[in-house]
Automatic annotation (TrEMBL):
Belongs to the VMA21 family. One of its GO terms (cellular component) is ER to Golgi transport vesicle membrane. This is Vacuolar ATPase assembly integral membrane protein VMA21 homolog. The keyword Metal-binding does not apply. InterPro entries: Vma21. The lineage of its organism: Eukaryota, Viridiplantae, Streptophyta, Embryophyta, Tracheophyta. The keyword Phosphoprotein does not apply. Required for the assembly of the V0 complex of the vacuolar ATPase (V-ATPase) in the endoplasmic reticulum. Its main location: endoplasmic reticulum.
Amino acid sequence: MAGVMQKFLIASMFMWILPIAILYGFNHDLLPGSTTLSPHSLTILSGFLAVVSVNVVIVFYICLALKEPTDKHKPDASFVAEAKDSVKKLTSGVPSTDPALKKQE
């Protein structure tokens, strides 16, 4: 679980840092070629690249999440048994003893 949180925090940091760095670099003429652009073009290009950088980080985070092994996460056995029992009760028509379900009826 710690590895998942670490990946999430790192991805979150990059989602904040990269767009700000791109905007700062364009607005302070740190990137080559940005001095020849008009202010309007500079704003549009830097904003577009900032948005693209966030999307790249999101795609990278999704790829990391999909590569995680699925056998590592085992559900709680008592939770699974309880869920199966509740599904059987709902499908068989037996009245439930769960107070939340009684409220819904």
